[in-house]
Structure formats: C-alpha cells, structure tokens
Write the structure tokens for this entry.
Amino acid sequence: MLERSTGALIKPYERWLSEDYFIFHVREVAGSPTAAELVAAQRLRIAQVVRGDRLILSEGECGEVLNSQISYYAQDLAVIGWNAAFLYDSSLGAQTAIQLLEYANSQLLEFRHYDELLTEILDNVYDLLGEKKSMLARYRLARSATSLQTVLLDIGELTEHADNAIKILSDMFAARLYRLAAAKVGVPDYKNLVAEKLRTAEALHQDMIEQFNQSRGFLLEVTVVLILLIELFFAFRGKGM
C-alpha cells in the first residue's frame, strides 16, 4: 500500500511502529462443551496459550489470566491477554471479536506514535528554552510556538477521533469486549501518557508565547524611549539655535 501511494505521501516515516498480537481461534471442540465446561476442563492450557508460555502456569497466575474472560452465549468464550487472545466460537461469531482486537491494537499503535512524537517535540522545546535568551532567540520562540500549537491541535483532534470512533458501538457486549481488550493491550496507559505530555506541551507553549510577548514589549518600550530622546534632542537643539 505504501509503495502504491508513494506519490501522495509528504515526508513519509522511515520507521514504522508495529505490534504483534496473536489470536488463537478454536471453532469446534469434541463434545461441543459450553464456555464454562471448556474453562473447567482446560483452564491451565487456555491460560498457557494466552500468556504464550511453554510451561504450565500456577493456579494463581491462571486465575489472573482467566479474569479477562468474557462470553455472550453459553457456547462462546474470549480470554484476552496483553499479547494474545483465545477465542472459542464459530467463524461468523468470532468476526466481531477479531475486528475489535485489531482495532484496539491499532489504537495502541496510534497512541504510541503520539507518545514518541510528543517526546521528541518536548525535547526540542526544552533545548530551545535552554538557549541564551537573546532578542533573536526570543523571536525564534514565536515561530516554534506556532509550530508547536499546530502539532498540538492535530494530535488533539486525532485523539478525539480515536475516542469517538468506538462510541458508534450500539452493541453493549461489543463495547464491553473492546474496553476489556483496550485495557489489556495498554491503550489507556498510552492515552494517559499522551494526555500528560499534551498538558506539558501546552504549558510550554504558553511560556514561549509569554517570553516572546515580553521581548516584544521590551522592544516597543525601547523604541518609544528612543523616539522621545530624538524628539527632545531636536527640541533642545532648536531652542539652542
């Protein structure tokens, strides 16, 4: 897709973030057990699969994994972990769960990208604020502040779109499944990091604007004083003549 759309890209990224997430989908089990029966019979193996561990987990760790199970009908089951999920359902029934797991991971990538982008921007702003506050440097702050505000608005808008996208789910079970998946893969954690860095960036933006305004006010005061001195000079010179 990137190769086909190269002509439409402006400053494409050289490095792309990625997330591996495994979905183990079991369509049929001998005897067609219910979700409760399957968990009772295979709880240790299900937990082992979700954790991606070669060894059998302890009962305590197994219970921790199975706390993230969710079912709608008696015959379906989803156990969701941070890097894998176990689904027991028909091909048609599992489609929604698979799509929501994919969407949760795409949101994780989105917030990870914003987190890295804001980290880089904040580092640059700190370096800029640490420079000697010459008049020229303060005027560069204005341009940097404008650029920072543009980025903040873009990230804020995209973050809002990401939040609103899931609100279209009218199915309460699908919404619960998504919230569980998002919490497990770490979407809220990265979202909070981005929100914190946005607040920091906004405070820095305000500080940059204030520094620029102080410099501009000082320059205006100096200009006014110079004009007054010139007027006084010519006024006294005229009287002396």
Notes: The radius of gyration is 29 Å. Residues 22-89 form one domain. The chain has a mean pLDDT of 82. The beta strands are 22-26, 69-70, 77-80, 84-88.
